[in-house]
Known about the structure:
By secondary structure, the protein is α/β, with parallel strands linked by helices. The protein is 43% helix and 16% strand.
Amino acid sequence: MQIYRTPLADRLAAFPRLGLANLPTPLEPMKRLTAHLGGPRLWVKREDATGLGFGGNKLRKLDFVLHEAVSRGADTIVSGGVVQSNSQRQVAAVAAKLGLACHLAVYHGRLEPPTPEYETSGNAFLNRLFGAQLHDVAWTGDRNAAIRALVADLQAKGHKPCFVPYGVSNALGAVAYATTISEMESQAARLAFVPAAIVHCTGSGGTQAGLVVGAAAAMPDTRIVGIDIDAEPTRVRADVVAFAREASKLLDFEFDDATVEVVPGHAGPAYGVPHEATIEAIRLAGQLEALPLDPVYSGKGLAGLIALIRQGRWRKDEDVVFLHTGGAPALFAYHSALGI
């Protein structure tokens, strides 16, 4: 494949988008957490600050993924996730903002409700507030089957639904998430540093795929480190590689599978179940940096970063960015399990 020298931002500009997110998101130093851990120099990319519906990383993907559907006259957005899915909450918020109906396949059985408030608080409450119609379905391990079944049912009833995959993770979603790298490239340059690594939680794969493809094009000296939060690192890495390959073809950039790193061992006892390291990370982020992290995704991502720092992964004079994917509303659904 031919390598083009066109900057990543120019390549991304060719893809139409709706403009749903408040961008660029801030890149901020975490000086107190850095001091507490004894280095490296830590930064946070505030993907929780994208705005709509309490924000989060999925809004970047929805900007691109929904553009074609809206242009073609879709009247309904269909997606799915577990009860406290951050992705579902952002899909529901976007549907409300665009004046579209929203149907969500809510998976039950992937994890046992960890608290009495789990089924009704946090993201579950916001989904209802944003007007989504919720369809309870059993978790089978197939993330998109129930969503596709909802799409088919709505089509049979005469609607024009738009299928949004679990986690908004597909090739176009990965292209969309490469915009994060485009932003960080210029932000870090203005702040006079080159990140040794960008560390984040990884699960459905689209976010990490966008980061690795974007970094290959614009930040080749920066390692993308995904912290597995699904307790399925092999499956996660395979999905990241698949989405990244497809996204690199859409962007016409080269991509090396070897750059995909998914770190196991920090998901706790199971997906959606916080453990001691997660709770420590949530406490530290809150008390030292006033950053609310959720116990399913961003909290486990930071827990993995802290563990890698304590293992000596980076020098004290290196710079590492933690990508905060959002998810604060889920804190309220886990309140009684966190001991805070």
